[in-house]
Design a protein that fits this description.
alpha/beta, Nucleotidyltransferase, domain 5, Rossmann fold, 2 domains
Length: about 350
Amino acid sequence: MAFQANFTAIDFETANRRQDSACQLAAVVVRDGKIVREGMWMIRPEPFFFSAININIHGIHPDDVRDEPNFGGLWGEISEFIADDCLIAHNAMFDIGVLKACLEKHQCDIPSQTFSCTRLISRHTWPDRQRYGLKPLSTWLGIDFKHHDALEDSRACARLLLAAGATLGVESMDELEQKLRLSRGKYGDWGIKNAKRVDGRRPGKPKASNKRSLPKGAASRNLRRGTVRPLRFPMDPFDEQSMVRESGGTHQSSLASGDGDVDWQRVAIRCEFIQPLRGRIISFVGQLRVITNEQAIELARRAGGQPQDKPDAATNCVVVAAPDKYRPDVPAAGQVEVLSEADFLKRLGV
């Protein structure tokens, strides 16, 4: 099941504190869960004034837009990107407010349109996160971008929503909003109504008494250099409460990594989102130690690979518990990539 959402992510940068002072706008169009079109416009604000604070934030100077059209002169082109679509932005009330203010400033017809906010969606998709800014969320998910560039921010916003859809296991925006109990925002010539949680409640961590306790001796999530300990891992990696307990401590962690903690939820989202094993027909040979073979198969599937029960002529990737002892039983039709368990996990971003 894939997130087949249709929307347009937007981001504005402004020249000063006025809402109608847009100096850059970008739009990223997503169809069936894929980015299919992008647009970016440099805009000459009216009045033509840039504050030092805003320049310091986005790095756009007056000379960068002095010869550019104003918003009214660009609206015909911009509207082709965003008209009749659900708009998505991070802190959407800011961007929708800028859009509406610019339309009013230049006496353009204001369309009636729906929108939603990736900050709101993120708060309810990942309620255990500490920070919900576009930069910290993107860093956590492995999304690299240059913050406060409108096109880069729009791409990151689009990818953030796609990651949320993958996390929730939904197929459409309607299903995502239904699952999170969110209502879309709306704007028009009458004003703006913000996107919000239907029941009005903010997400929060459960009380200690409501947390599911682990049995005595439950495995630690930490992977430390020089230690060997059982590793908990969610069979559904998006649900951190549904941990699969290791049987008898058979599968033990031995990563040669100095990283004290592995965020398996982030790894699983990254697999689903980046698809690092796309096109790989992959088989696992021998008993893995850091995670179970079943968990490795689940991660490989989320990462775009096609797991097999055993290698055959179609196999082009093999993950082996003991690479130095591996000898293929079946001749491959093409070149086969042989990975150790550590190499496999590194490929997934661990």
